[in-house]
Design a protein that fits this description.
Layout lengths: L1 E9 L3 H12 L5 E4 L28 H14 L3 E3 L3 E5 L4 E6 L3 E12 L3 E3 L15 E3 H9 L8 E5 L3 H12 L3 E7 L8 H8 L6 E3 L1 E7 L6 E6 L12 E4 L2 E4 L3 E3 L2 H5 L24 E3 L10 H21 L10 E5 L3 E5 L2 E2 L7 E8 L3 E10 L2 E11 L5 E6 L11 E8 L1
Parallel strand pairs: 1-2, 1-6, 2-3, 6-17, 8-15, 9-10, 9-15, 10-11, 18-25
Antiparallel strand pairs: 4-5, 5-6, 7-16, 12-13, 13-14, 18-20, 19-21, 21-24, 22-23, 22-25
Helix pairs in contact: 1-2, 1-7, 3-4, 4-5
Length: about 425
């Protein structure tokens, strides 16, 4: 079977649903959303805590409530969604190969594609932790699903490695379920999570956060019986003599998220060595014309509200591509965006003065904790913006609205630079 759709969106989470709704509101009729899970909503279905929607809806919602609003919107707009469908490959000429139990193996020719596959957790195998391989070692997201979706408790005595937001939230969730969370150990000298989660999840529940610490040994044959944590130096190597043993039956890993870009690679999309996501321009278009990306598959966000904003933009640009034909992406020379002096990366990586909107969001993260700094934006060495920040942390994404008039007199070889300077 070879079907044809104007826009095919891969992923039915918050990014995919927001992109679909945006494209339909721009007048595109034939839109198809493909989701591998049995239901729409993505990871938000297991995020039963509140704190979602403050920016996008102006009220505090739980994850399922936030997802339900977009699911309802997509259904009201009559957008076709196929759940339980695994996408196997995406080609550069925008042919999607997928599989489900109703149609079997099928292909779809898309006018344009929006990649919205989200991200996955980094596993133990990527960490090289010494010790045995017993039961009781979970990623924080797996433990979250076990408790919130399946109603199963992963353990009673818990140690958490990594202070990402999921790990912080699970420290609180496990405590509320009657578990004893001994500590959250973090390799870096700063937390990777939002400040509000450090306060509400750890400090409010008396759970210690051990910065510059890591797990150096896992004990147990059939089940985890304990872990050893040690302090690390500036080189992140364990410091002899600082080891402390924690008896436990469960170790949760919250050590980072990786964008799901195997499908992007099959299409020949160029990936950023820093984010692991596609390299995109100001329209969120990848290096392959007609293929767009948004949400956590592009770069890991801190708030789902920003995922929805980015996906709305991707949907509008995908609609413009379909409605304008193959030449819709032509806009003259593109200026490279460079991250310097404490800025790890930027999204987008290029901007096109001849095509970009009056305001284009430029999102980035810093590489350390900084106080009393200015975010500067320069074009061809000419400073066009200087924004003061009291504090900047790697756990919180920053946004600068790039103005089109800043680029009016830019030469084709000029570089847009985003950097930190002293306030």
């Amino acid at each position: 079977m070879n079907e044809r759709y104007d826009i095919v969106i891969i992923g039915g989470g918050p990014a995919g649903l927001a992109a679909a709704a945006s494209a339909r509101q721009c007048g595109v009729e034939r839109i198809l959303v493909l989701e591998r899970d049995a239901v729409l909503g993505g990871i938000l279905n297991q995020c039963i805590h509140n704190g979602f929607g403050l920016h996008h809806f102006g009220e505090e919602l739980t994850g399922p409530e936030y997802a339900a609003r977009f699911v309802e919107q997509v259904r009201d707009l009559g957008i076709e969604c196929r759940c339980g469908t695994m996408v196997l490959a995406v080609s550069a000429d925008r042919v999607v190969t997928a599989l489900n139990d109703k149609q079997g193996l099928f292909t779809v020719q898309a006018g344009t594609i929006v990649l919205a596959m989200g991200c996955r957790e980094r596993p133990r195998g990527a960490l090289n932790i010494p010790g045995t391989r017993p039961a009781g070692i979970y990623s924080a997201g797996t433990a979250q699903r076990l408790i919130n979706i399946e109603g199963k408790l992963p353990g009673r005595e818990v140690v958490i490695l990594g202070s990402g937001d999921i790990g912080l939230i699970m420290a609180r969730r496990l405590t509320w379920e009657g578990c004893h969370v001994h500590a959250v150990a973090e390799l870096m000298p700063y937390s990777g999570g939002l400040k509000r989660n450090i306060v509400q999840c750890l400090e409010d529940n008396g759970i210690p956060l051990l910065l510059s610490h890591t797990v150096v040994d896992i004990e147990g044959k059939d089940r985890v019986t304990g872990v050893t944590i040690a302090a690390v130096g500036p080189d992140r190597a364990p410091i002899p003599g600082t080891e402390k043993h924690y008896p436990c039956d469960t170790l949760l890993l919250s050590v980072g998220l990786l964008p799901e870009n195997e499908l992007s690679q099959t299409a020949g999309v160029a990936l950023s060595p820093v984010t692991g996501g596609p390299v995109v321009n100001d329209s969120l278009e990848t290096s392959v014309p007609g293929i767009f990306a948004c949400g956590n598959v592009l770069h890991v966000h801190d708030l789902v509200d920003y995922v929805s904003e980015e996906a709305d933009l991707a949907g509008r640009h995908a609609a413009a591509f379909v409605q304008g034909g193959a030449g819709a992406g032509d806009a003259g020379p593109a200026l490279r965006v460079e991250a310097k002096n404490g800025v790890r990366y930027t999204v987008p990586a290029t901007v096109r003065p001849g095509r970009m909107a009056d305001r284009a969001p430029l999102r980035f993260r810093v590489d350390n904790v900084y106080r009393d700094k200015c975010i500067t934006v320069t074009v061809g060495g000419r400073q066009v913006a200087r924004l003061r920040r009291r504090i900047l942390t790697p756990g919180e994404m920053e946004t600068v609205l790039l103005r089109s008039d800043w680029l009016e007199n830019a030469a084709p070889d000029d570089v847009v630079t985003v950097a930190l300077e002293e306030a």
